[in-house]
Write a structure and sequence with these properties.
The chain is mainly alpha-helical. The chain has 4 helices and 2 strands, in the order E-E-H-H-H-H. It has 2 domains: 53 residues, no CATH class; 121 residues, no CATH class.
Amino acid sequence: MESSATSGRGTLAGSGARASRFVATTSRCGDGIADAGRGERCDDGNLANDDGCDARCGGCVDPATLSSTWAAVQANVFDRACTACHGDQPTAGLDLRAPGSYTAILDVAAAAGLYQVKRGDHAQSLVWLKMAKSSIGGLDDLPGGGMPFGFPLPRAIVEAFGAWIDAGAPMDGYVLGAEALLVPCDGAKSGASTEPSTPAN
């Protein structure tokens, strides 16, 4: 069957085994199988939001629609990987849904003398540390598990999130070093301008 086919039928037979008929279909969001080749980060077997995976299966957001690095953080980090636990019934009281997530995290005190996100310092930012624990490793002295549960974010995304924090976590403009947040899943060029901004103070 060609890789571009949407379905296939056939018969499998092995030496000395009885032939078995099969029907194969292409992967789709909601089938319960996370298909990284289609840009899926998760697939919980349905198209419902806020139940462990979103209706896009953690799929791509067109970077041309993102007006800033902050918009990319919201779309490609929080909306894709965090709001199932930090949404309607927010774990640890942290709601990462738009539009209130920016004020819910920026320079807000968290556990162990850290901040949810400490402007200018990813190493003092609990949200980043939890993601890094899962995606990059180490940080064994950080209490609790890494985030998100079940499917770590790609290292490049976590590092880009850290670059955004270190640049002052600006709400507007694009941050140099955070371009991974603006890369389309298929690797094609985006229409979004990614010129770095001056860090907010």
